Amino acid sequence: MSQQVRAVVAHSKGAPVSVETITIPDPGPGEAVVQIQACGVCHTDLHYREGGINDEFPFLLGHEAAGIVEAVGEGVTEVASGDFVVLNWRAVCGECRACRKGKPWYCFATHNASQKMTLADGTELSPALGIGAFAEKTLVAAGQCTKVNPEARPAAAGLLGCGVMAGLGAAINTGGIGRGDSIAVIGCGGVGNAAIAGANLAGATTIIAVDVDPTKLEWAKGFGATHLVNSREVDAVEAIKELTGGNGADVVVDAVGRPETLKQAFFARDLAGTAVLVGVPTPDMTFEVPMIEIFGRGGATKSSWYGDCLPTRDFPAYIDLYLQGRLPLDKFVSEEIGLDAVEEAFHRMERGEVLRSVVVL
157 and 24, same structural domain? Predict the structure, then answer.
């Protein structure tokens, strides 16, 4: 039978969130109910609250989460009750043209739970990224549950569900960073520092952190940055070139997602290098460069959606690296909070005071 649990809900654009009682149905075919242990406060949740994603209010916020599978519906074989899982928003279909080509990380038909969670009065909720994990429990498609080693700390493991995976994947999967390479990362918040950590893990020898905030640059140093560039004080493109023998970096990751930062990434990469956009732009933004520059420079300018990850491949591997002490996921956790502190966590995030606030239940 259905359950009632506490959860964080956004009712209207820009309004403060509230903690309310919601109803979780029993899992149907292909679905799972997950008891949430921890969920990171991601900027995407703030986008939902501000109406920047769509206007399908009320939203059940939270998506960067880890927890225990409580129950599964008919036909579910990939996870079972009691499994420790990291939730993902890329439940691949296995049947679309990308999946059939052997590139499921580009799946064009990812899916969510069919049933709706509701407010106490029956109003249907829109779960953030199909997850809705600022809640004691949530209902998801079983394919959104990725089983990982249960020895991992939930507050750290859950961060792979979005921001950390986006950054790691931007550097490793999309950018193809490797041993001896150089990389510059523009924007050193959670995603940018994850890209730095990924580059360090992959063996890059020159790792350049670029930001306007000295605090964030110090964070970047802790994740493996070898050089720090304050772009409020110097020209970022020229600084990156100077640090790479005048050539530019092999990979430049834009973790900000603005026209000016993508332009920096484009011109700061080496000839035949790769510029990667992982920061999320707004619909009104445009990017313009002379076509002769695109033609003459070679290389690639790519977007990275969720770090081009495949959760079933990437999450368990990164959790193992974390448990081996090779991936510092704990460093991303700035503070642990309760459900009732999410609104203030949004403000701390906006002020740049935290890498990640993590709701722990």
Answer: yes
Task: Tell me the residue type at 241.
Answer: K
- Give the predicted TM-score (pTM) of the model: 0.96
Residues 14 and 123 in one domain: yes
Per-residue pLDDT tens listing for the chain (361 residues): 799 999 999 999 999 999 999 999 999 999 999 999 999 999 999 999 999 889 999 999 999 999 999 999 999 999 999 999 999 998 999 999 999 999 999 999 988 999 999 999 999 999 999 999 999 999 999 999 999 999 999 999 999 999 999 999 999 999 999 999 999 999 999 999 999 999 999 999 999 999 999 999 999 999 999 999 999 999 999 999 999 999 999 999 999 999 999 999 999 999 999 999 999 898 899 999 999 999 998 999 999 999 999 999 999 999 999 999 999 999 999 999 999 999 999 999 999 999 999 999 9
Domain count, the chain: 2
| Backbone angle region of 299, left / alpha / beta, with phi > 0 → left and psi within -120 to 50 → alpha | left
Q: Tell me, yes or no, whether 266 lies in a domain.
A: yes
